[in-house]
Structure formats: structure tokens, C-alpha cells
Amino acid sequence: MKSFFRFLYELIGSPQPPSETPVYREVIFPNVGLLTLGVSLALVLIFYYLINRAMGVATFNKVRHWTIFLMANAIIAFIIAIVQCNSQQVAEHSYIYWLATINALYGLLWFFLFSVILRKGSTNASTTPF
Amino acid sequence: MNLPPRFRFQPALAAVLLVLAGCYSRDDVKTDGGTVSEQQVENDQTKMSRDNAKVAPNAPAPAVEETSASAVPLAQVNVFLEVSGSMEGFMPKPGADASNTRFQQHVAQFLSELNNSPAVSRKVYYRIKEKPYRDSYQQLSGTVRGGIKEPASSTDIPTVLDTLVSNYYDPNTVSILISDFIYSPKNTGAIPYIKTDITDAISRTQRPDLAVSVYGFTSDFQGTFYPAIMTGARKVPNCCDTDIPYYFWVIGPQDAVRRFDAALLAKQPAQQVHYGIKYPRPASSLLNRYQNKGDWYYGEKTASKREAGATYHTVAVQEASAQNPVEFVLGLNISTMPALYQDVSYLKQNLKLVGQDTDAKIVNVAAATDQTRASSGPENQYTHFVKVRLTKMARAARPLQVVLNDVRPAWVSQWTIQNDSNINQAGPKTFAFASLLDGVSTAIVAGQPAPVFQIPLTLEPAK
Amino acid sequence: MAKLFLFGIGGTGSRVIRSLTMLLAAGVQLPNCDRVVPIIIDPDAHNGDMNRTVDMLKSYQQIYNRLGQREDGFFHTNISTLSSISADTNGGVKDTFVFDFGGINQSFRQYLSYDQLSIDSKGLVELLFTQDNLESPLTIGFRGSPNVGSVVLNKVVDSPEIRFFADNFQAGDRVFFISSIFGGTGAAGFPLLLKNLKDQNTRLSNARYLRDALTGAVTVMPYFALQSEDNSIIDSNSFLTKTKAALSYYEHNLQGLDALYYLADTPDTPYENQPGGTAQRNKAHLIEVLAALSIVDFMQYPDAELRNGGPHFHEYGLGVDTQELNFSHLPDESREMIAKQLTQFLYFTRYHKQHLPTDKAPYHDNLNLDYAMRNEPIFKELNNFLHSPEFGVDEWLKELAQNRRAFRPFDLTTDDFNAMIAGKPVEKKWNDFFNKGLSQNYFLNSLNDAAKSIQEPDNFKKLLALFDRVTDKAFEEKVKVV
Question: How distant is the Cα of A129 from the closest Cα of chain B, in angstroms?
């Protein structure tokens, strides 16, 4: 699990400053990774199963609505990374924002993947985004 | 439950905030997937002594041990004041002008402090003549203040030392000898054997745990100076224009000596040298946010927990080159060590790195500043900072030790003179002092002196 | 395989069959038969009412054939042409809903071969028929002249169609006649056909079945007037006189009838006077819906009850005498027959028009509607049936609403499904933010939901099944009762 997230987040290079590497690898990467996965899953569930199934809203299923959730997910993913870095009190570094950015991208990816996997179970958005 | 909608969302919001705090914390960091490389480290280090190679991330808390020990007072201290004629100059009878010597001032104050100190349960006072005579504090203090009533003809230092080592050596007990330590052999032919005489005297009774701390002071001197080398005048009356050194020798089992030093002599403005004391390894840690440079981080598995008070001794180097050197700082807390070992210039000279396959070297040693003490980071725990630089990466984990060598301090030779017959010109020096200490050293420290302390570190390539 | 043979005679026959078809399309149950065989008997081959009824029947048939047999739902009753009930047509019966008069492109005089008749016969003819009767071309029917019709229609019995009908008549099949009593074709044709089918000495096959067959009829008495034109052949002022005469004839000469339904109304606004041809295209009228209901009513009787103590005579009475009727003005019995089905059908029609082409939703994608509605013929056919300006459901409802008496069960001007049932808006709960009644969202959600649960590979069948279920749900959940 940790090595998986480490692999994902170190695609953009090693954590900076280097002295914070253990905290990033052992705490922040898994936390941010799991949270982002969780939030993406939650948003997908909200979009497909709460709004577009349980609540019976049938007019919130267009690609643009999905995109709103996608973007919200990316923003939340960005914030998750920053909040995590701050709460773990790692040294200030522009790397935090790079991490947040790549996490936002992973947020987009997770949301997309979960959408593809789970959309069939939705009533009103089972063909969103395509 | 007919709450307005915005209240209904509050639990959800709270849940979200909880979740945002994260599931991984530093407390529950598990070592998943790190065991193999640890094994690798072990294998690489099999040549090394296991003690050195196996670096405990949380070093055994020496500070704790020390404080608990020092909380128990020493059982007894025996104070010996030499009252031979040569000491009269330090303790002149009070004159009309009510002046006294610095010796009187200092020793009286020290005796008072000692007598009132809770660090020692029982204080016993002796005058040293040809042999020790039991005194009370009042009597001894009176002697210091009022001058020596019946000066002994002379005292033979090896004899005194032999007496103290043989008869006054007890666990948890120290003897402190206050004297000018001018050792004049019976004949000049014995002068080359001073060292041997001292060694023999101390070694006659085998005391495997024996330690000696020597503190050197100087005082003005108002009386007759008896030089050890009597090639010129047998004595120099109305001496002296120069200050004359005097010494406290603390003798006893090493841990008692160490504790006595720390309790009563740490603040003495004295030169000092120590033999046979084993100091606990001082608290230390690498500091990853203090003057560090380059790509390295704590190699400990638990580093990410960053528990309060945790210490780190493993440097995981990601990259090191001449252009991009790694610099790391080791914080040391040596506040309980004798002042000698806290002296930055002593440390700069005698702190060494011992390692293999590395070009790491100490580039700076600095004492704590107000800034570091006021810092919120872990550097506020430490009194000294050792900065190490390296530009080459090891291929595998390697031990690296920061060692403080026990080297005779420079003052010893500076305070030594081979002929004290002309003391006023020679200045505050003591005849054959270095030889005396060599004798002590030979008796206590067999062969190469052990380092004062060593901090084992590990250098490893980043995983 | 009981069948209902439905003889729609004259313009009234066409119009009643149109309304019946609408009711069947809406899913009204027609028990005791599994196939309706309408036979329109109208010598006026260009009659507008007839032609649009035939177009609609063809459309219905295509849709039914695609959907197949089902227990209920839209288009679940099989309506087929006479020729399609048997493969053995001898080549003489065309695949059409209309009786083939073989193109009587003659005047009545020529038809009678008047000029070859003897003097005595000529005298009799001149006694029975006016000069106008003799000169009028038969191509536009009998124009309110039963005396002409009775002669011409007598020939029908010898036609290949009637023989084919008789050949394929089976025990349990029922026969129903629709005619107006005051017109030409209907007034003459109904007793004539009845007499021939029930004739003891008929040359038709299956005579015994025919005689024993349960037979019903609806006779529409005058319910409209025509604008008076001095030179017009048809004068509505004679309607009552003709009706009286016909009734007195019926009194003694309708043998073998098990149930007879009388419908009448007091005329109000006169129709434009069109004696026949394509211009005779009258707006759908409530009376035709009621006449269609008489067929439903007839079919609801079990055999035993009809045979017992017949013939049964029925008249119809509205609860309230008003010029604008909605569901609440119908008697309970009628309302239960059609209100729910028509409401569902309206929702389907309106949704089909308003939202179906533009919906972006899973059910839409699931049915591949974007492609299907543009390219698949059956989808176009459905579109015709619902929205054709000639014969579509929209048009039918509009005509009913515009006529006098107006039948306005629905507010056709609104786009709001909640307000579509006249006088019975869907209750919306204002305290519940998510309950918007019959919003588009409601339909979308139901459609998407149904699209997931209905397993049907054929997208057209599935579309109909979807709307069956969804409009049923909408009615049960939101409308509940009309």
C-alpha cells in the first residue's frame, strides 16, 4: 500500500526538502492517497447513487454536471494534500503544491475510474459521462 | 427530527473534517516493506562490532540514568588539606590589613559549599601531615582562614596518594586532596622517576575502578616558597610576586568521582583533567531541520512518527556529490560533562569521525546559542552541534562514529616546569606536574585512553 | 381465438372505429376477444373520415405487429384486416380494412340499368326514387338516402369479402354493427347486412355459426345538424323524420340482434354541409367515443348473459348536461373504462412530443433513441400515430375538445403534466422540496429506472413497455383517481 502510493507520488520526483522524505513516504503519501481515493469514491457514490438514484434527481446527469463533480473532486484532492502536509508540519516547500497538483490529477483519474466502474448502478446517470 | 437543512449537514461536515485529518499518523507507522533492506544493513555490517553497527534509533536514555543516579547522594567525602610548610604561603595568618589570599577565599568557600551540600551524605575532614589527622569542618576551615598552626615538615605525594587509594577508597566515596602538589624527591637522582613513583603509589593497591580528576587553580602566595629543585635557594622567603598553582585531586571509584565532579566542581573556574572516568553516552540526535544541506533524511523506520524526544542516528543519503554535498548536524547534550569536554576549542580539536567508505568529515563544532535554545525545534535540546559534510555516497549502510578522544589538555604542559627554583620568573607553574599526571595516567589508563564518548551513526544510501 | 367482426357502416362507422382504435391504443381492455376485425362499408371511396380512419388503422396494425401479443398496455389489442385472418384468401379479398365496392363509377340510374328496364319497372323506380337519387353518382355514397343504399348494399352480400368473412367465421366470434340511423349508407346497410347474415336460407357457409353469433349494434341517432343550403342534397331537417321512419322499421325487422345501443344528442352548432368525398372529414365527437364505449361494453358481457333475455337495449345518459365535458362529468362506469388509460396515453403522447426527442438520459441511450427515432420506420410510424395532423392522437383529442359538445378531459395547452387532467391537478406537496409532482424529472427518473429493470432486447417494444409502466406509475402515484 505504502509503496504503491510512494510509486504514484514520486513519479514527479522525490519529496522536498529531502529531510521530510520519511514523513511523506510513511504518512503523507498513504494518507493523501487513501483520502483522495475515499473522497473520489464518495463523490462518485454521491453523484451516481445518491443524487442520480436515491434522490431520484433525473436532470442532474449531464456531462456538465459530472464535470462539476470531477472538478470539485480535483479541488478537494488539492486541498487534502495541502491540509495533510500542514497537519504533519512538514517544512514549507513549493513541493507541497506540486504534490497537491499531482494529487488533483490523481483525483481526476480516480473519479473517472470509479465513474466508469460504478455508473452502471445508477438510475439516471448510468450513461454519464459517455 | 425536523431540523433545518443546514443543521443536518453539520455532522456530515464534522465527519469530513475528521477524515481530512488522515488515517495515517506518525504513531501507527508500521514498517511495511522495509525489513529486507534492514537485513541487508545487518549483513553489510557483520565485520563491524555489533554494538557499533546496531544503532538504536532511540538511544538508551543516558540522561535519565544520570539524573537518577545523582539523586542519590554520595555516601562520604574525605577532604584532605595539606598543611605542610609549603602551603603556608597560601594560608598566611591574617594580617592587619585583613587581606587574605585567593586560596583562602576559594577553599574556605568550597569547604563551606561542600559541608552544606546534599550531594554527599557524610563529610569527613583531615589535615595531611606525615599522615592524615581527623579534623572537624570548623577546625579545617579555621586552618584555611587562620593559617597553619603546626606546619608539617613536608608531605610525600606518592605516600599520600598511596594512603588515599589504599585506605580511603570505598564505593560511593571520594577523597579530595587540596595541595600545591610540589613533589620534591629525596634526591635529584629520583627526578626522572617521578612518573614511576606516582604510578607505583597509585597502583600498589589494585583499584580497577579508580578515577582521578584534577582541578588546577592559582592563587597569590604570601610566604615562604619551597621549590622542589633546590639547586638555588632552599627556600624563597617572602614569596611570591607570581601566582602559585594549587590543585584539587578527586580520587575514588569512577562513578563517584564523576558524580562528585558534576555536583560540586562543575562550576569551578578551573583547569581540569580527568582519568579513568567513564561518562555515559550523551544524548544526541541528528537534526534534519537545522543547518542541513543536500538530499538526505532520517533513515530510521520510525522517523516519520517524529515522536517527541525521539532521536535519530541514521543518515539516508539520496544523493551526494561535490556540487551537491550533504551536510548534516548532530546535536549533542553534554551539559553534564565536565567543562573541559564542553569547551568548543577542545571539541574542535578532539572530536573525530571514524568511518569507512566515506569522505565524511566534521566541518564545524558549535555551542548552543540563544537562538537554538529558544528554538521550537529539537535543536533546543542540545548544547553542541557537530556539522558533518560528505560528498560521496556509500553503496551500502556503513557505521560512522563521532568520537571525542581523551587527550591531555594543553594547560598541563603549560603549567609544568622542570626547575622551580626561580619561581618568580617562571610564573604560576608546578614542578614536574606533567610527570605526576603521566604517572596517574599510566596507573589508571592502561594503554590508549578510551574515548570520552562515542556516538554511533549509520550512513546508508536512501532506499 | 374469438374475434370481433366490426362492421362500420358509412361515415359514422369510420369515425366510431377511429375512436375505438384510439381507446385500444390507449390500452382499454376489450374482453372476450383477441382480435378485432374492422370492416368499413362505405361506397364513398374518398370519404375523408374513412380514409384517415384507415390510415390510422394501418398505423395501429404496424405498431401492433411489431409489439406482438400482450396482456395489457398500449396497443395490446390485435386489430387486423379481414384478409389477414386466414391465409386462404382466394385472391379475391384485398388486404384492407375497407369493403371493396370495386369502384362504382356510375350514377344510380346506370347502376340500375334504368334505360333497359321495362316501362313498369321504370314506373316503380320513379315511384321509389327521386330524380336526384337516380342522377347522383354512387362514388360519393348514398348521401343520406337509405332507399338508394338498400339497393346497392344488397349486392354486398354476394361479394367475395362477405363470403370470405363467412368462410372464416367461427363459433364464439361476435359481430357488431356501427351505423347512423339518419344517414344513407348506415341506415340502409345495417338492417340489410344483419338480415343477410342471419338469414335462414343464406348461401353463406358457416350459416349456423353466423346465426348463433352474438351480435350487437350501436345506432347513432342525430347529434349534429348541417348548415342549411338550398341546393344541398342532404338536409339535416330531414334527420328526425328519417330516424323516426327507420326506428319504426327496426322495431319489427331486426332479428337476431342480442344487444342494441342507442345514442343521441341534441344538435348544437351545425356542421359544414359536405355530402361526401374527401371534404367529408368531420371532427371527432364525444358521441363517437361513447359509441366506441358501447362496443367495449358489449364485449364485457359474457356470452351467457347476452343470450339470456335478449335482445338488450341500451341508452346513454351523461351525469351532467354541460357543453364541456371532462372525466368528472362521465358516469363512474365510463370513467373507469377509459380515464386511466386515456390519461396514461396522453402522458405518453405529450412526453413523446415534448421531451423524447431531446432527452439526454440513460433510458434514451439504452434504447438508442437518437438513431431509432430518426431512422427506424416503426418509430416514425409511432410518431405518425401519435402526432399526425391527419389522424394522430393529438389531433383526435384536439377535435374532441373543439367540438360541441366538447369533450375536454385534458388541458391540451399546458406543458405541465401536473395540470393536464382538466379539473384534477396533481397535488404537489410544497413542503417537500423534492416532490414536484409529475415533473419531467419524475418521468426521467422513472424511465431510467424502468429501463434498467425491463429486460427487452427490442428497443421499440421496450420503449412501449417503459411508457406503459411509467405512465401507470405516474397515474397510481400522483393522480390516483380521476
Answer: 26
Adjacent-strand bridge partners of C215: C175
Distances (CA, A) of B245 to B85, B218, B239, C102: 15, 4, 13, 153
Q: Residues 6 or more apart from B196 whose CB is under 8 A from it?
A: B439
Q: How far apart are CA A120 and CA A126, in angstroms?
A: 5
Cβ separation B318–A14 shorter than 8 A: yes
Q: Which of A18, A31, A79 comes nearest B22 by C-beta? A: A31
A125: contact with C, CB 8 A cutoff: yes
Check CB contact under 8 Å for A123 and C452: yes
Q: Is the pLDDT of residue C232 over 70?
A: no
Q: Do residues C5 and C85 touch, judged by C-beta distance below 8 A?
A: no
Residues of A in contact with B318 (CB under 8 A): 14, 18, 21
**Quick one: CATH architecture of C3-316?**
3-Layer(aba) Sandwich (3.40)
Q: Residue ranges per domain, chain C? A: 3-316, 332-479
Which amino acid does the sequence have at C309? G
CA C245 centroid distance within chain: 26
Q: Give the B-side interface with A, CB within 8 Å.
A: 19-26, 29, 32-33, 288-289, 292, 294-298, 300, 303-306, 316, 318, 462
What is the distance between the alpha carbons of residues C14 and B104, in angstroms, rounded to a whole number? 143
Inter-chain residue contact A62 with C442, CB threshold 8 Å: no
Q: Same structural domain for residues B159 and B185?
A: yes
Averaged pLDDT, A86-112: 89
Question: What's chain A's Rg over C-alpha atoms?
Answer: 16
Report if pTM > 0.80.
no
Q: What is the dihedral of CA C109, C113, C117, C121, to 10 degrees?
A: -50
Looking at B224, B256, B278, the residue that finishes a domain is: B278
**Which residues of B fall within a CB distance of 8 Å from A1?**
32
Residues of A in contact with B462 (CB under 8 A): 21
Domain that holds residue A60: 2-7+21-121
Q: What is the ipTM of this complex?
A: 0.76
Span B145-175, pLDDT tens digits: 888 877 777 778 888 889 888 889 999 999 9
Residues of chain A with C-beta less than 8 angstroms from the C-beta of B295:
14, 18
* Per-residue DSSP letter, A93: -
Chain A 22-81, residues with CB within 8 Å of chain C CB atoms: 55-59, 61-62
8 Å CB contact of B21 and A87 = yes
- Contact B20/A80, CB-based, under 8 Å? yes
Within 10 Å of residue C1's Cβ, how many Cβ atoms? 9
Asked if residue B355 and residue B270 are part of one domain, the reply reads no
Q: What integer best gives the mean pLDDT of chain C?
A: 83
Q: How far is CA C144 from the centre of its chain?
A: 21
Angle (deg, nearest 10), helices A95-118 and A63-87: 140
| DSSP letter string, C293-340 | HHHHHHHHS-HHHHHTT--EEEE---SS--SEE-GGGS-HHHHHHHHH
Residue A92 touches partner B, C-beta closer than 8 Å: no
The alpha carbon of residue A22 is apart from the nearest alpha carbon of chain B, in Å, by 5
How many domains, in total, are found in chain A?
Answer: 1
Of the spans B78-82, B280-284, C88-92, which averages the highest pLDDT? B78-82
| Beta carbons of C19 and C194 less than 8 angstroms apart | no
Q: Cell numbers of C270, please? A: 351545425
| B327 → chain A, closest CA residue | A19
Pair (B229, B176) in one structural domain:
yes
Beta bridge partners of B239: B223
pLDDT surpassing 50 at residue C316: yes
Answer yes or no: do A23 and B318 touch at CB < 8 A: no
Residues 6+ apart with CB under 8 A from A49: A118, A121, A122
Residue-range definition of the domain harbouring residue B64: 5-278
In a domain, B426, yes or no: no
